[in-house]
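Moderator note: this is an archived Q&A kept for reference. The question asked for a predicted structure of one protein chain; the sequence and the answer are reproduced below.
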Amino acid sequence: MTRLFAGALLCVSLGAFAQSYPSKPVRLVVGWPPGGAADTMARPLAAKLGEALGRPVVVENRPGATGTIGASLVAKAVPDGYTLLHASSNEIVLNPYEKMPYDPVADFAPISSVVAFPSILVVHPSLPVRTVKELIAFMRARPGKLNFATAGAGTSHLTGELFKLRTGVSFTYVAYKGGGPAIVDLIGGHVEAMFATLPSAVGYVKSGKSKGLMVTNRKRSAAAPEVPAATEAGLPDMQALTWNGVLAPAGTPSPILDRLQREIATVMSTQEMKARMLQNAYEITTGSREAFARTIRDDLVLWTKLVKASRDETQR
């Protein structure tokens, strides 16, 4: 009886806590520099979420170590709903190459997926190829010679590894501290190719500063309908989507997580946000906390298997 009474008191206190939340500004940590795909998604979401909550939601950029610096900060934060992580899949599920300073499942409470987008295989306009098939033939004739830019281990690096496994080609990685500097160097002709996030590269493809050969999805993107999907390019197993989502530190009270999930879903369902996301090549993917947690678990299995396969291939 005493235990039931204590449980009832806890439910009442958590409900009251959720009703008074938030009573001060909320931090939304982004583990990437300003101007990148994660940052450009986080800012309009933060502005609208702040309006819905009645308190400012302030974006705080903590770039470095392919997103893990910002994620580590949130993993260790007080679980009171005032420090949240606007994560990309890079720092949560695409980083099994590195020993992360947090457990991507145990240290976070998933709130909601927000958007997803494919990568796009882009090459410098001077490269004499127009299709993925031509690029593969070009690379096979020059094994290891082509320079592929990567935003760092656990990002476009893994998409490149998937491409290697599916095609049998080889190339040389040139690592950058983020996708922005990488694509700038591709446009400048310092590297020949890369897998870039579609939001960061679509403008360069439309302007002719790069050539888009394939999006890593089963269907073409409405933001770049002229670029073939992986299935059309002859690589149906080249499915690689990046997502952005919001997480809190593990232990954050469920009523607060539930409210944040509802407010994010409402914000992202407005016509203004739908139009903005389409313009920036994002697909809205909001859903339940449970669905987001399932996505994280499934992706961890997929990409960990890819890392193992890639390492086994390298050691042969």
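Archived answer notes: The mean pLDDT is 89.
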